[in-house]
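DATA SHEET
Item: assembly model
Revision: 1
Owner: S.N.
Input lines:
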Amino acid sequence: EIVLTQFPGTLSLSPGERATLSCRASQSVDRNYLAWYQQKPGQAPRLLISGASNRAPGIPDRFSGSGSGSDFTLTISRLEPEDFAVYYCQQYGSSPPTYTFGQGTKLEIK
Amino acid sequence: QLQLQESGPGLVKPSETLSLTCTVSGGSISTTDYYWGWIRQPPGRGLEWIANINYGRITFHNPSLKSRVTISVDTSKNQISLRLKSVTAADTAMYYCATPSGNDAFDIWGQGTVVTVSS
């Protein structure tokens, strides 16, 4: 079973700054099937990125994903007030199909 | 546009079986070639995938929960159901219905339903 470790656990930044969130897998992620989600209090998670770097429909271009193998990054180029939330990474393994989430990174206002 | 709505009992006693339903609107389970899944989130904690099913009743489970989980579809009601037996306090969580339309990531989510396990 692949374990995803996200770091940092908490990231304190100001609006307008650049955020870099990391997700490391215990082994290589099958075909870079790595997704990122944003979750705000009291809401369901929202898909931001799939396939490591593909933005979901309607997601602003300040969100970008990169990485391959076992190291992945979510970058928010210029933080907007609405971006402060918890972010999760998730991998998909296809044989058999399984989904594993990281423990999350909380992005808070400094 | 597909929408998912979960429903459940809210409170379940320890050792009993939890039963949840997800109603799909804006599309038909039987004509949509998607998998439909359940994901849970204990209070203040992260996300845990439980299981997926498609209209052909092909299922995939989280190995850590497989022995206690039954997932099913009712195409006549356009619903997906989850049963989790022998619940304990550790099963207290928000339970989400979600679909990975592209298989690898969950792009459509319901609002979730809270389940508390307590006597």
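QC remark: The interface with chain A takes residues 35, 37, 39, 46-49, 52, 60, 62-63, 96, 98, 100, 102-107, 109-112 of chain B (CB under 8 Å).
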